[in-house]
Structures are given as C-alpha cells and as structure tokens.
C-alpha cells in the first residue's frame, strides 16, 4: 500500500508493532473468552475481527448501533450491550446472539418487548453511574426468567478504580467492589460475571470475563499507570504554518482529538501550546528544524472519543501503510 | 413532523425561536455581505441555506471538505477557505467561486498548482496560529498576482480577543489588532478585509466582513459574554438509570458533547456530576421527580466540536419537530 507520508491529514495511525504487543500482553493474562473486548474503544469491525481471530469471540458494546454493526459484520457469536438502553427493540431481530444489561424494570420491559433473548443483571459496584442493588437485581432476574429470557449472570463496572495508580491498593479496592458482584452472582445465578477494564485487567481476578478495549490502542491517560500496554494510536498532522515568533501550526485540532482529558502530547522535540477547532499550535525546541509540509504525530489523551471523531484508522509499520481499518461503528 | 419526545437520543436539537432571534440580532448589525458566515460552527448546508436566503451569500470554511460540500449544495457564490491547506488541488476544479487563505510560499505554491483562482493574504494579528507579517504578505501578493491569481484582499483573525469580557476593553484591543490588518490591506490591496468572529461581531468595526458562525447556535462559553445571542442548541438525552443514592444517568456523554471547555450545563433543577463516554451522571435536586425514560436537555460548553460529533440537528419549536438539518459537512 501507500507510504505514511502520503496519507491525508489529519489521520489516525496505528503502529502495528505496538498494537500486536498490546494484544499479546493482554492475551497472556486474559486468553480467549476470559476477555470480552469492548468495541466502544475502537469502533471498528476490522480491528474487532483481529481480536476474534485471536480467540476473543465474545464482545461488548456501549450502543445499539455498535451491536448492529458487529452483527452485520458476522461477529455476532456473543454480543453484550453492556449498557442500559430503552432502544433495544432493534436488537431483538438481529441475526446474532444478543444479551443486554438491565438495572431497572423499565429497561427490562424494553428488553422483553424488543424480543431480546438474554440479559445480564447490572449491579452497582461503586461507580456513580448505572447498576442496581442486589435485591433489585434478584427481582429483575426473577421477572426476566418468568418472561422466558435467559439470565446469563451479572455485570458490574468498577470504573472508579481504573486510575488507582498503586497496583496493590487497586487490587484491594477491586476485591471489595467485586465482593458485591460475587454476592449478587451467588443470588442471581448464571455463568457470567462480567466487569473490569484496561486499568484493572490483571487486578480484577474475580470476573469470568474482563470488558477491556482501550488496551489495543492506548492513550496518554492510561499510560500514567504501570500497565504492559503502550501507545499504538497517534493522530498524524501536517505543518501548515510556521511563525518567526517561535511556533508552528499543524492541521489537527479539537475536532480530531478527544479533549476531555486535555491536550494531546507531542514527542517534539517541543511542547503543545494549545488546540483550537482545526489547529494545534506547537512550540518546537528548534524552529529552524520545521517547515510547512512536515508531519507531526500527536498522542491523544483519551482514545475512545478520539477514534469516534474519525472515519478510518491506518495501520502502519515504520514508513509503510499496511492496512486501512474503517471506523464503521460510528455514533450511537 | 414528529414530536420532540419521539426523537432518538442523544440528539442535537435547535430551538427555532432562539435561532431566528440570533440571526435577526446579527443581521441588524451585519446585514448581507457584511457577514461571511463560518460553516465550521454548524457543518450543515441546510443551515447555511437559511443564512444565504437572508442575504449572506458569501461563506467561509475551515476545511477543503466543507468547501466541497458547500459547492455541491449550490452555495458556491463566494467560498473562502479561511485556513491554510496544502490539500487545495481538489478545490481548483470545483464549480464554485473559491478563494483560499495563504500565509507562506508553500501554501501559495499549492494554491497555484491546484488551480485556485483567488487568494486572501492571511496576516498575523496577534493570535498564536496562522498568518504572516506584512512584509511577507506583500511578497506573497506580488507573487500571486504574477502567477495570474486574484488577490482579493487580506484576512486576520483576532481569536485571542474573542473572550475579553469587558466590551470597551475588547474594542480597544480589537482596534489595535485591526490596525495591523488595515496597514497590510493598504499595502496589499483588494476589496476585502476579513476577520472577526461571534465574540467581536460588533466591536470589530474595521473589517469589511465578519467571519462568525457560533452566533447561530451559541454555547455556554460565549454565553459568559454580554452578547445579544442565546443558546439555541441543546443535546437531548434520555434517563436510562436512576439510583437511590441520589443520581440519575442519561445517555449523552463525551462522544456527543464537545468537552474542550468542560462539562455541559443542565437546567435541572440539579447539577452535572460528570461525563463519561456514553453517559452523563446528574444530581437532581429532587430524585423523586425522575424516572427512566424521562428526557433531559444539556447545553454544550462549545458548539463547534459538539456539532461535529453528530449526523443531524432537529429544528424544534416547543414540542414539535419542524425540520431536520443533516450535518453534511463532516470531518475535514
């Protein structure tokens, strides 16, 4: 295929060596069905297929459209909507094995009405977001079974513990959070205890499957932890202006970078001054090294919303583009 | 058409009364060609057509794809790429009247090679981004004319002054910045002096045309200024979970909201706790008022990157949906 230098900009590029190393590091701890990759992190069935081919045949997603896209791509062996949605009627008729998370009567009603065959009971394990208490979960499981649905088990996302930097401290806190989930599992039944994420992929030893996706591409936020994954995803941009006052400007800004965790990083040598909608202004150590047309590589602070802004990723090895991965699970 | 309550979520909704009032407020100060609406703020040819029909027949854009989309929609009377790009060859052959900004030999070379007929010389007026000094601008204009291009004038964006909250102080600073641009104009010639934005739409009395777009939809950032525009754009979301611990969760998160200026605001009554990828957790004043399936309306902190994350806007009047505006100028 093409050379990296000929790619249009701004573009998402994935370093294949880093990607493969990240996958190998995860697989050594979470092989096959011990991992349920989360497609919300990468929104690409081409990337998902790589994981499927490596033995991770079950996936989870955050939106109905992600589930539909995975089913359409023939990756529907075991799809979990790991999120509450009232808009699940569209999932009941898919040619795929679909399970949805439920944490209230209303969500369960939607799943039943929509013809969804299976549910996981979503338990609150400490993150202020979705999930119910155990007693509610028991009632929901009973009602789901009475309505003919399969209750495959429980899920609980300890998202509030992902960024605890001390691994021992994190492991202790995860154990406490998962004690609640295991208690719920004992009372509710089913084969699945689902939870975790990239930040707790090894400290969460309690779940039967870990829901992680960011480890494939990584970002500067997760890189502050001592994890065996490295940044595989960058945003490639072109220098479009240089100023004798000391800055250069490249054509990647707020609209091509996830900004909720702040500015991207730049290997430089130099630093990021600020991002605006379509620009990043950079302060290079040596202005004389830079000219219009040069390329810069930025590492986004947060992978998931960065990927969501693009139409494709380019898989690269050194200077060569070796594949194109459409971001074909866009929006919601 | 439909009722607002039947819209899928998360969705962008535009309050037609606020939108019309914003347009009227701008038109009273900047009628017709005194305004060059910036499509980067709303990325929709349907919205652009409304402005065109009100007499604003010239537009500016930030990306080549926005220019192409405007030309394809028959809105190509006078299109300015108000940004430096090396990727302008695709604009030279459009069935439209295209002008591009240039601030260096390299960008001018690209415009010449790409067959672009007209340029504006982009002058640095104090924002650390694109734009050259006056002497460079003179040289570029001379070279452009020698190559047969039309030099229509100058542009200079005082983006660093948009958020100066004291209007008198802002007016003074804008006058200083524009003194540079007027000096450049005197030496470079042409009919156009282009600059400004929503934040300086009335204090920049120096330009022949103002480049503003956010005023149509508005955001919470610009709302901190004393401007005659109000928030017309909201993100409609559905409550998908409620917790007896005191929070509710709605299905709009980082991926449907521009986050570079922080969390959205919520009229509540209550407050925003935090956003994650697909969720916002809200603390309502009275939890008992809320149930799964209720709708909430969030106002994004920054319009431009919020719009860029969606596929369409719904124009609404009270409870009625009166039009759908596709966001048909996506990406770059």
In terms of topology, how is this protein built?
Two copies of one chain form a homodimer.
Chain A: E1 11-15, H1 16-29, H2 45-53, E2 58-61, H3 64-72, E3 78-81, H4 89-92, E4 98-102, H5 105-113, E5 118-122, H6 134-146, E6 150-156, H7 167-188, E7 192-195, E8 209-210, E9 233-242, E10 248-250, E11 265-266, E12 270-275, E13 280-284, E14 295-299, H8 303-307, E15 312-317, E16 320-326
Parallel strand pairs in A: 1-15, 2-3, 3-4, 4-5, 5-6, 6-7, 7-8
Antiparallel strand pairs in A: 1-9, 9-10, 9-14, 10-13, 11-14, 12-13, 15-16
Distance between the termini of chain A: 32 Å
Number of strands of chain A: 16
Write down the overall mean pLDDT of chain A.
Answer: 97
Chain pair sharing the greatest interface = A-B, 57 and 58 residues
Radius of gyration of chain A: 21 Å
- Helix vs. strand class of chain A: alpha/beta
CATH superfamily of the largest domain in chain A: Alanine racemase
Kindly identify the CATH topology of the largest domain in chain A.
TIM Barrel
| Largest sheet properties of chain A | 9 strands, mixed
In DSSP terms (H or I, runs of 4 or more residues), the helix count of chain A works out at 8
What's the helical proportion of residues of chain A? 25-40%
What's the CATH class label of the largest domain in chain A? Alpha Beta
Dominant shape of chain A: elongated
Could you tell me the strand content of chain A as a percent range?
15-25%
Tally of discrete structural domains of chain A? 2
Q: Give the H and E element order of chain A.
A: EHHEHEHEHEHEHEEEEEEEEHEE
* Assembly status: homodimer
Low-confidence stretches of chain A: none
Under the CATH scheme, which architecture of the largest domain in chain A would be assigned? Alpha-Beta Barrel
């Amino acid at each position: 295929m093409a050379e990296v230098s000929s790619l249009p900009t701004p573009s998402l590029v994935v370093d294949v060596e880093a990607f493969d190393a990240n996958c190998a590091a995860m697989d050594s701890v979470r092989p096959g069905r011990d991992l349920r990759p989360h497609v919300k992190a990468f929104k690409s069935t081409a990337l998902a297929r790589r994981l499927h081919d490596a033995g991770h045949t079950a996936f989870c997603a955050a939106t109905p459209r992600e589930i539909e896209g995975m089913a359409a791509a023939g990756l529907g062996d075991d799809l979990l909507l790991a999120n509450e949605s009232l808009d699940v009627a569209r999932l009941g008729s898919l040619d795929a094995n679909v399970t949805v998370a439920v944490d209230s009567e209303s969500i369960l009603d939607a799943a039943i009405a929509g013809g969804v065959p299976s549910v996981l009971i979503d338990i609150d394990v400490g993150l202020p977001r979705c999930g119910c208490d155990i007693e509610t979960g028991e009632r929901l499981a009973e009602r789901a079974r009475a309505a003919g649905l399969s209750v495959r088990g429980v899920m609980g996302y300890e998202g509030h513990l992902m960024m605890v930097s001390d691994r021992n401290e994190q492991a202790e806190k995860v154990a406490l959070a998962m004690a609640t989930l295991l208690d719920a599992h004992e009372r509710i039944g089913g084969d699945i205890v689902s939870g975790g994420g990239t930040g707790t992929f090894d400290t969460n030893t309690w779940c039967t499957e870990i829901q992680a996706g960011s480890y494939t591409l990584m970002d500067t936020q997760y890189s502050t932890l001592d994890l065996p994954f490295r940044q595989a995803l960058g945003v490639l941009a072109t220098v479009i202006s240089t100023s004798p006052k000391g800055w250069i400007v490249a054509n990647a800004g707020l609209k091509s970078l996830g900004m909720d965790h702040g500015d991207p990083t730049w290997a430089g040598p130099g630093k990021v001054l600020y991002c605006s909608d379509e620009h990043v202004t950079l302060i290079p150590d040596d202005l004389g090294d830079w000219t219009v047309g040069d390329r810069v590589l930025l590492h986004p602070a947060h992978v998931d919303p960065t990927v969501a802004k693009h139409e494709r990723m380019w898989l690269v090895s050194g200077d060569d583009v070796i594949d194109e991965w459409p971001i074909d699970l866009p929006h919601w």
